[in-house]
Write a structure and sequence with these properties.
By secondary structure, this protein is α+β, with helices and mostly antiparallel strands. The protein has helices at residues 16-20, 53-72; strands at residues 24-29, 33-39, 76-85, 95-105, 109-117, 123-133.
Length: 136
């Protein structure tokens, strides 16, 4: 899957943190869902050698942001991001696979849900977001 053209209307797509986290889009169903892979790096480890919950939330936020722009060709901003952690993940899993789907869309907002799995298909975390669609 190719990346989008950067810097439309002063927005850099994909974002610097999307690139920094080495996100790789692996599946897209237009206006329905997206799947993105994030390598789990040692620098994301907490003291227990598990991936920081904040980095998992960042993977969700990156996925939702990329997906919303791909759907709308407009920027959105996150209003809420609610993450629930199910089980830990670490560098031994090698990657975190985040899948997001559209739940609702209005003229000014999106509601999206996501699930994060390890490569073996075990559920790591779930997340729901509400995003505001920004005017051009």
């Amino acid at each position: 899957m190719k990346m989008m053209n950067p810097k439309k209307n002063c927005f850099e797509i994909p974002s610097k943190i999307f690139k920094e986290m080495q996100a790789t889009p692996i599946e897209y169903q237009e206006n329905h869902k997206i799947k993105i892979s994030f390598p789990i790096m040692e620098k994301y480890e907490n003291p227990a050698k598990q991936m920081f919950g904040g980095m998992i939330a960042a993977a969700f936020d990156n996925t939702f942001g990329y997906f919303s722009y791909k759907m709308l060709q407009k920027a959105c901003t996150t209003l809420e991001l609610n993450t629930s952690f199910i089980r830990p993940t670490s560098v031994t899993d090698k990657e975190l696979i985040v899948e997001a789907c559209l739940i609702a869309k209005s003229r000014g907002q999106l509601v999206l849900e996501g699930k994060a799995h390890n490569p073996q298909g075990k559920l790591i975390a779930v997340c729901k977001t509400r995003m505001m669609i920004l005017d051009d």
